[in-house]
């Protein structure tokens, strides 16, 4: 996965920690507090714009993570 991590880049959902290390994400929250980041992520989940699966990966809201099995050994 490239450093410019995006949800479903190359058809695969990124783990939350990789998304948070992406340059665009860091720039977006550079002047904001960790509490703001947490609130924004929570609101995206509540609005069903993103979904987080049991492996801490983020999916776009229109995808059901339960219906998408990804081989852990390849990603």
Automatic annotation (TrEMBL):
Lineage: superkingdom:
Bacteria
Q: What is this protein called?
A: Uncharacterized protein
């Amino acid at each position: 996965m490239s450093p410019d991590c995006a949800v479903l880049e190359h058809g695969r959902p990124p783990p939350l920690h990789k998304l948070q290390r992406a340059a665009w994400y860091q720039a977006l929250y550079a002047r904001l507090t960790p509490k703001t980041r947490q609130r924004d992520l929570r609101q995206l989940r509540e609005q069903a714009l993103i979904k987080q699966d049991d492996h801490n990966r983020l999916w776009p809201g229109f995808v059901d993570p339960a219906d998408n099995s990804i081989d852990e050994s390849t990603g």
